[in-house]
Amino acid sequence: MDTTLLIIGFLLMLVGVLGSFLPVLPGVPVSWLGLLVLHLCPSVSFNWPFIVVTGIVAIGLYVLDYIIPAMGTKRFGGSKAGAWGTTIGLIVGIFIPIPFGILIGAFGGALLGELVVNKTEKNLAVKAAFGSFLGFLASTFIKFLATVVYLGLFLWKAWEFRSLFF
């Protein structure tokens, strides 16, 4: 039972780390579910206040994931089209077989979205796309950092009770 829960929890952690980059997966909440699964192991447990606090952090970061890119877009004069373009470009960038395809896709999508809205102001479109891209990078970095911290906590707690599993 413990080994099965440990494996499921670890897989959730890995999916969470991937989700910090991929927009279709809620990375931090999935990583938190990995901590919760580890907590449910009869011989390994975090205390409930820890689970509650990390859950609140996961929900807060999930909400901020939508706010931070919008703030970057708005700060640089962008529109919703730029924010949507970033997300669509990111998804397209996943399938581009070149290094940094995700980043190129995110910026290119933001730029195309802004050019659709600001057909005459190309400088404004580039500036807004840059803001949208910066918001995306900031949000991704924060999510990645949180999922790596959750993974570290998971591994630390699992290592603490390694004799029960191996």
From TrEMBL:
- Give the keywords, sorted: Membrane, Transmembrane, Transmembrane helix
**InterPro entries, per database record:** DUF456
Q: Which residues cross the membrane?
A: 5-26, 46-68, 88-113, 133-156
One Pfam family from the record: DUF456
| Protein name per UniProt | DUF456 domain-containing protein
